[in-house]
Hints:
single chain; alpha/beta; Rossmann fold; five-stranded mixed beta barrel; 13 strands; binds 1,4-anhydro-D-erythro-pent-1-enitol; binds uracil; EC 2.4.2.3; transferase; Uridine_phosphorylase_euk
Amino acid sequence: PIKIQEQMNQYVLQQGKLQLRNPHIKQGHDDILYHIALGNKTHDLERMFQDVKFVCLGGSPNRMHQFAEYLMSELDIEVPAGLGLTNIACGSDRYVLYKVGPVLSVSHGMGIPSLSILFHELVKLLHHAGCSDVTFFRLGTSGGLGIEPGSLVITEEAVNGLLQPYMEVATLGKLVQHPSRLDSELAQQLLALAQTEPQCQGHSTYLGKTMCTLDFYEGQARLDGAFCDYQPEDKMAFLKRIHNHGIRNIEMESLCFASYCQRAGVKGAVVCVTLLDRLKGDQVSSPHNILEDWQRRPQRLVALYIKQHLGGK
Ligand code: R2B
Ligand code: URA
């Protein structure tokens, strides 16, 4: 495989603005951001997005709408009179994108391929808009390992299903490895906030490794998919092995999110709530209202962080 070296943020952050590491995208040329139905010729991206400092991603369109509403009340930001919150990507039905002051709240769908497409287009959007100093968050759900359901896990390192800390992609017929390191200072700041803020005291928050898989069922050692070619003891041996390796949760996007943050030269953090303990079962069986409540936990923590850091940016 081809190993991509650590990238130099210097290049990416030339003149403070987010630069693209793609020489084929030329200044002033037409660039259509197809899956979010925006473009640098059809929209005044600078006017619409230049003030963006935080990009918050999460799987579900409804949850990201709810987060946008929550941000409006937390940050005391009003959207233009009479308009309400508008899905700016409404020309496409792939993703939703809301803007609340300097924060974008965007859905990424499920799995790496879906997140990857969105991430490319968001980075180009921020570049065309002339944004600088942008921080990314993924607010997600996951299966926990050996921790109380409803806990938060802040990812210190994302690994693939083989415990390797990079995303491997077939590019031009060869495997290319993109390292998936996350910003440790940002992760520590989030952890400290979770441990001190009264709003986050009703549950535990951990810093740990996150395993990112290509599938929810066999990819995550479940026994309850439509197909299964292994035994319960094989499953438990695997889950215990990865737990001993420091994995605290399993989900399906962190690897791509982390490696793309690194490639784009932006700070990023992954904050996921755990919906169950995978050492105890496979099915997500808690009542709907409890799951809804848990899914607001990453939102609360990230909104607190944003609130604290808005002034300083
Ligand atoms: C967490 O939840 C989804 C699967 O249920 C997936 O997008 C993920 O990472
Ligand atoms: N999301 C996942 O990817 N896995 C789980 O077990 C729960 C949510």
